[in-house]
Amino acid sequence: MGAFGVYVFDEDMACDALAGALHLENPLDEFLKQFRASIETDYLEIDDCGYTLAYTILLLGLKDIQIINKMDDAELGSPYRENVLRFIENNRADWLHVVNKGLYYDAAKAAIDAVLSEKSESRELWADTDSLQDWINVVNGLKSEL
């Protein structure tokens, strides 16, 4: 893994997920697909962890832009903030028409639990550092916003 820090976009695959999300035809469908895959797999690889966490941030932004606005540059980072805000702007109208938003929130929460679990490569890698608890706190912070 090239980048490694406790915040979501400190990890390369999360950055790739964000960049790709800007071009998805049906991003909300892709979010559910990723969340469900993360929940159902026996072993959650690092790339899927990055996608799950990046999509969670985008979902949080659709839920409430203030969640994104209150994140500082260490949590989100300037170049990533611009892309997150662009994604929200491009997809806000579709999100407003979603009838069962709870379906997305519940799936994201369960996917975060998977990222934090023993079946997660991310957790496995963080367990080998002195920053495991900091990373857990960041990820749990996302979950609490859902």
Question: What order do the helices and strands come in, and which of them pair?
Answer:
Layout: H1 12-21, H2 27-40, H3 46-63, H4 65-69, H5 78-96, H6 101-116, H7 121-127, H8 132-145
* Binned strand content: under 5%
Q: How many beta strands in the DSSP annotation?
A: 0
Give the N-terminus to C-terminus distance in angstroms.
28 Å
Overall structural class, as computed from helix and strand content, comes to mainly alpha
The major β-sheet equals: none
Overall, the morphology is globular
By DSSP (H or I, 4+ residues per run), the number of helices equals 8
SSE topology string: HHHHHHHH
Number of domains: 1
Arithmetic mean of pLDDT: 95
Assign a percent range to the helix content. Answer: over 70%
Radius of gyration, in Å, reads 14 Å
- Uncertain parts: none
Q: What do you see in this structure?
A:
The chain has helices at residues 12-21, 27-40, 46-63, 65-69, 78-96, 101-116, 121-127, 132-145. With 146 residues, it is mainly alpha-helical. The chain has one domain (8-145). Helix 3 (46-63) crosses helix 5 (78-96) and helix 3 (46-63) runs parallel beside helix 8 (132-145). The mean pLDDT is 95.
